[in-house]
Write a structure and sequence with these properties.
With 255 residues, this protein is of the alpha+beta class. It folds into two domains: 13-202, Bira Bifunctional Protein, Domain 2 (BirA Bifunctional Protein, domain 2, 2-Layer Sandwich); 210-254, SH3 type barrels (Roll), CATH 2.30.30. 24% of the residues lie in helices and 31% in strands. The chain is built from five helices and 14 strands. α2 packs across α4 (170-189) and α2 crosses α5. The longest helix has 20 residues, at 170-189. It is globular, with a radius of gyration of 18 Å. The chain starts with 12 loop residues before the first strand and ends with a strand. The mean pLDDT is 93.
């Protein structure tokens, strides 16, 4: 596997036939080894992948993308780290959308990628801080590409193959994601935050649309809300029938 047409992302690529978790491997590796920014770790078989909020990310061997990318955004304040979620989500969305011309590709807050409303990609970002800035960021990306059967307990899971009704070239998609990630990351690095946020909102599932939500706290009742903004630190801002409220990832669920 080889990444082309980038300046830094994928110039160093470590390929493994099997790994428990590309994120965990890379997080541990940077503790003891100096790695170049843009280093990519890819495995054909990730058997203990992690998702958001301590969830597991299931993946059939040799059918999907499981990779992690090392970034060194020392220019980015820790309290604005949500921009890395925007960068990663836009990168995947922009990479796969041209392959699925008639299919709706959206970003679900904070960084899931939906095809026709079903989840095909999860992103997990683990940051290391140095003072008030971020020294290292490990961006884990899992994309369901050619897998066509899923655990019945995951009724909202899908893949590019299921939605596009064809088999896709995994290496081609990896290359496109790396190219798009570098493009969006360089936009962030050159101060184009407002441009990135506008693009993110343009692709955001349920943005400025009334829908049902529920707080995760016990005894909470469903309520109507409309996504109107994301705070600098990544909280979801909803317009309610009687005002506004913001929610962190573990405080709200989509119904």
């Amino acid at each position: 596997m080889k990444v082309t047409d980038t300046l830094l992302v994928g110039k160093t690529l470590q390929y493994f036939d099997s790994l428990p978790s590309t994120n965990e491997y890379l997080v541990e590796k940077v503790k003891t080894t100096t790695l170049a920014e843009g280093t990519v770790v890819f495995t054909a078989n990730q058997f203990a992948g992690k998702g958001q909020a301590s969830n597991r990310w299931e993946s059939t061997p040799n059918q999907n993308i499981a990779m992690s990318i090392l970034l060194k955004p020392s220019f980015l304040l820790a309290n604005t780290q949500f921009y890395l979620n925007i960068v990663a989500a836009l990168a995947v969305k922009n990479a796969i959308e041209p392959l699925l011309k008639t299919i709706s590709v959206q970003i679900k807050w904070p960084n899931d990628i939906l095809l026709n409303g079903k989840k095909t990609c999860g992103i997990l970002i683990q940051n290391t801080l140095s003072g008030s800035n971020i020294s290292n960021s490990v961006v884990g990306i899992g994309v369901n590409v050619n897998q066509i059967t899923f655990d019945p307990n995951l009724p909202n899971a899908t893949s590019l193959a299921l939605q596009g009704e064809q088999t896709f070239d995994i290496e081609q998609i990896v290359n496109a994601i790396c190219q798009q990630l570098e493009h969006c990351y360089l936009q962030l690095k050159t101060g184009q935050q407002s441009l990135l946020k506008t693009a993110y909102f343009a692709s955001l599932y349920r943005f400025e649309t009334w829908a049902w939500y529920k707080k995760t706290s016990a005894g909470s009742e469903p309520f109507l809300g409309k996504i109107v903004d994301i705070t600098t630190n990544g909280a979801l801002v909803l317009a309610l029938e009687n005002g506004q409220a913001s929610f962190d990832l573990k405080q709200i669920q989509f119904l």
